[in-house]
Known about the structure:
The structure is a single chain. This protein has 2 domains: 2-392, MFS general substrate transporter like domains (Growth Hormone, Chain: A, Up-down Bundle), CATH 1.20.1250; 448-669, Rossmann fold, CATH 3.40.50. Helix content is 56%, strand content 12%. It has helices at 2-25, 34-60, 63-83, 94-127, 134-155, 161-186, 202-226, 234-253, 260-280, 286-310, 318-343, 349-362, 371-395, 454-460, 505-514, 517-520, 532-543, 568-577, 596-606, 634-637, 640-645; strands at 399-405, 408-417, 420-427, 430-436, 477-481, 497-502, 524-529, 548-553, 578-587, 609-615, 625-631. A 7-stranded mixed beta sheet has the order 7-6-5-8-9-11-10, sandwiched between helices. Strands 1-2-3-4 form a 4-stranded antiparallel beta sheet, covered by helices on one side. Helix 7 packs across helix 11 and helix 8 packs parallel to helix 10 (286-310).
Amino acid sequence: MLFALTVLLSASLVFLVQPMLARLLLPYFGGGAQIWTAALLFFQTALLGGYLYAHLLSRYANLTQQRLWHSGLLLLAVASLLLLDAKPDPQAAPLSGILSYLALAIGLPYLLLSATAPLVQHWFAARYPQQSPYRLYALSNLGSFAALLSYPFLVEPYLALPQQQAYWTGGFILFSGCILVLLWQSLAQSKLPPSAPLTLRRGHSARYLALSAAGVVLLLAVTQQLTQNVPPVPFLWVVPLALYLLSFTLVFNRDSWYQRAIWLYLFAICLVVALLLFYLGRQFDWLSQLLLYLMLLFSGCMLCHGELARSKPSREQLTAFYLLLAAGGVLGGLLVNLLAPLLFSRYWEFPLVLLAILWLVTLHNWRRQAVWQTATALLAGGIFIGSFLLIEQQLGRQDISSSRNFYGSLIVRDVELNGQRQRQLIDGTTSHGAQYLDESKAMQPLSYYRPGTGVALAIAHFLPADPARSSQLSQRHLGLVGLGAGALAAYGRSGDLLQFYEINPAVIEAAQQHFSYLAQSEAEIRLQLGDARQLLQQQLAEQGSQQFDLLVLDAFSSDAIPQHLLTTEALALYWQHLLPDGVLAVHISNNYLDLSSVLRNQAAALGLEAVFIPTPADADNPAATEWVLLSRNQRFLQQDSIRQASRPWPRPLRPEVRWTDQHSNLFQVLK
């Protein structure tokens, strides 16, 4: 009973801390999907460290030595949780900053938790030699699965982050007590044989690594696709990860759960779905995308993990076997976090890992299977990846440049709309600005920023509440969160100061090299590199309020607005930088989320009036646009230009929709 309880508790703690700390990191590193991917690289690496520690301890230490080593490290881990107060460094490079924070905040406790499953199984095999320890592995994955699903539904909605951390620390102390009792009492009369080395042929070890890495790459690639157009929130992290773990649980608990032919047939259907989702995903509603991506993920993971379970070694080699699985997981994380951004300007790891899984499963025994089976597998894979290449070639003919970094994939592309040539800046799947290539029209803003949109009206018709201050309109100070192609610089007049805040250096480079809005603007332009909220907080502390007449919030990652820029705390910060009669213009155009209630409730709490200004699509601008203006400046709000452009709110007000740094519920704002 204590063996099972210890394994369940350790697995639950491992997978509760992952979304908890990733959620904590969102405001420090831009709120994008890559934060979760980087965090998973750390957790996979720590898992490898835990499995290596378990293998070395069980292979080279006797019971007395294992007791002393493990007990000492557990006490040190508890002390680190109680005494260390690690804080993320937003000034650090994103990947290194995330990894260093997690190592300091949770490194040793997480390593010991990760070592628990193989260690306890090794001890269990010695204590109960007639029973299979692999059932404990399935139980561990079941505990992980339950913990993951409990986070977005039971933990995050009801507990603030400091409370979550406190309860988790209490859980780790309880876990440490269970391990100590198990070591010093339950194993008192046991004789522990050393773990055996993994004496497999090189091809078997390579296959273990490849299948394990492929499962992790598929998990990360699917999560990236899901969170391109919806803010990355724990629910969209934990559901894919939970299915990944569920596949482990099923195949290692009972061999009959893995029927290769059935899962291969489903996976083949999903390959066609993957092609549609990769290029036409925005044509599907959010729920359909979620279900289709999850079906693809689960079928792929069942193949990877089913093949691993089918070829697992004897119990004497289980710690070394788990070590190879963890090494494959780290390899997958490194491929997605480090290698893919260097090699690909788009998320090509998604189709490539699907091809890899198909061939790993179907070509493993190519020497012994029928020629037609091998030929069919090669042909199917060739058609699949060839379709991607053909579509990419067609789409890429008009590409001017493409790049990828921690913050996403960026493409500059020339297109023709309504007989006019335009240059577009595309982040992920979404246009983030466009400009006419005809020089005579080049300073006419397009897309979300064209004349008549909410932000254009706010800039063109801003009036101070006090008529005596109207003379200052010749020297307006505008803050703009999010640069895009720089289209809003076209509205700058001589004497104006426009201060842009942009987190992605690739966006700044693209706006300066491939668009002329910044260079041709009459205003003084200043570019601030970094997360806008962090920079504004730093400016407030070091320089005081920026005294903006107008602050524009237009920060998007693909089609998703980072949540930490729309919380109660964030809006309070913005108003510390705005003049009392200033205007906050917020861009809320989105295919999947209705953010109107979020902003209406925030406005009411701050004593502001909120105005909704939508602009329909037209021949030159295929995207409809929605802006919300917040102000207490009635002289500005009551102008005919603003009143005539405003429209009724698209949906009834939901008073319960309130986003804070501690809690935000994505389900409340889904369209």
